[in-house]
Amino acid sequence: MSPTPVLDLANLPDADVVALAQKGREAAYRELIRRYERPVFSLVFRMVRDRELSEDLTQDTFVKVLTHIDKYRSEFKFSSWLFKIANNVAIDHLRRRQLDTVSMEGSPHATTNDLAEATSFELAASNESPLQELEARELGSEIERAISQLRPEYRACILLRHVEDKSYEEIAATLDLPLGTVKTYIHRARHELRRLLEHVRDGGIGPLEEGEPA
Amino acid sequence: MQHRHLLPNEFDLLLDEESGFGVQPLRDHVRGCAQCSARLAESTALVASLDELPLMSPRMGMADRVMAQVPVFVPWHVSARDTATQWLPSSPAMRGMAAALIAVVGSVLTGLTLWIATRGDVLALFTGLVGEGVRNTVSQTAGDVIVALFGPQLAAAVQQVGPLGVALAAGGFLVASLATVFGLRLIATSSRARS
Predict the structure, then answer these.
(1) What is the CA radius of gyration of chain B?
(2) Neighbours of B179 (CB within 10 A)
(3) Nearest CA to B72 among A213, A22, A57, A95?
(4) Residue of A nearest to B9 (CA)
(5) Under an 8 A CB cutoff, do A59 and B65 touch?
(6) Global pTM?
(7) pLDDT higher than threshold 60 for residue A180
(8) Residues of B whose CB is below 8 A from A59
(9) Cα(first)–Cα(last) distance of chain B, in Å?
(10) Sign (positive/negative) of CA torsion B147, B149, B153, B154?
């Protein structure tokens, strides 16, 4: 007796691999992770801009998706479902971080000016920690910095459109937004990016240089 | 060619390389308008830069880390099919032979069953023979066990009193055992309470 023939998972479409995962094939789970670990990690990393955290959030995304793989409905694209969860995980984290942010002007419970000053933070405007510097190098180009300054919902739309190569309709399905809203967000994101990159254009450096009109 | 500059959403149509109705006049305008042409070039460069953003890689072993937290649920019918598949030969010829063998054995057994079912006297004789055989085997084994454990005298006594006597003796033994266990527990509980 010989073992059952091994399926060539790498050449199967997503829908078939998901169907196999729903039948409890561990190899299919791993194939889905292999296919999407880089796109999901890239999206999350560009959303939260912290490598270690992105590793954890990417892992959380896959755990959520694969634990509930039986609930996946095949009328949606698997990648849209996956990116929806990845985006939600990243946005949830950004919201939590926003809630956790302490006022820089001191504790709200401070009753005197001295107490408020004692509990206040100072911003080190251009002094990044070595880790932040490393991450900034990784997300190095001016365009990455500009993307990081977009509102999270604009950022998600522009990343799905240009990095993940999704259509407007897919982005709308992924982010649960009306198609018109997606178009508006992408338009505004591009406009904002052009504004943020004006200094690059004027200085004639960076990734925009090649496409500049003579 | 239109005589106004392009609106923001019209630039988006060109950037997304739309080809629908109304896009050609926009292209025609851009060709003849330095201002719109410059703005489109600027936006095209931005889009090209965005399109060139690389994918990033997480640390090695993401799949292992994820799978350590994901319970893989295998439905029973898949598990049963897998088990059956493992026993199937891989080559078509061997599979054919296995199928033929299963068919022959199945046919013989079915035929035999049908023949026995249609012959009531044979079925009664067969059932009686099997029942007699089972009873003899059980009583022989029980007798051997009693002789080995308690000696031939008790075995003779059991043979004399018959099954009812054996059942009464077993019941008495069970009651005595239970009474002993409860008695010991009672003593242990009361001694703990005193201490």
Answers:
(1) 44
(2) 10
(3) A22
(4) A187
(5) yes
(6) 0.60
(7) yes
(8) 62, 65-66, 69
(9) 107
(10) negative
Interchain CB contact of A61 with B (< 8 Å): no
A38 touches chain B (CB under 8 A): yes
Q: In chain A, what are the domains?
A: 11-102+132-203 (1.10.1740.10)
- Per-residue pLDDT of A81-106, as tens digits, reads 999 999 999 999 988 877 665 444 44
Element (H, E) at B83: helix B76-87
pLDDT tens per residue across span B28-77: 888 888 888 888 888 888 888 888 888 999 999 999 999 999 988 777 77
A71 touches chain B (CB under 8 A): no
Chain B residues inside the 8 Å CB shell of A39: 55
SS3 content of chain B, % helix, strand, coil (to 5): 80, 0, 20
CB of B55 within 8 Å of a chain A CB? The answer is: yes
Whether the complex's predicted ipTM is more than 0.85 is answered with no
Say how far apart CA B177 and CA B108 lie, in whole Å.
52
Domain locations along chain B: 8-51
Under DSSP, is residue A76 helix (H, G, I), strand (E, B) or coil?
coil
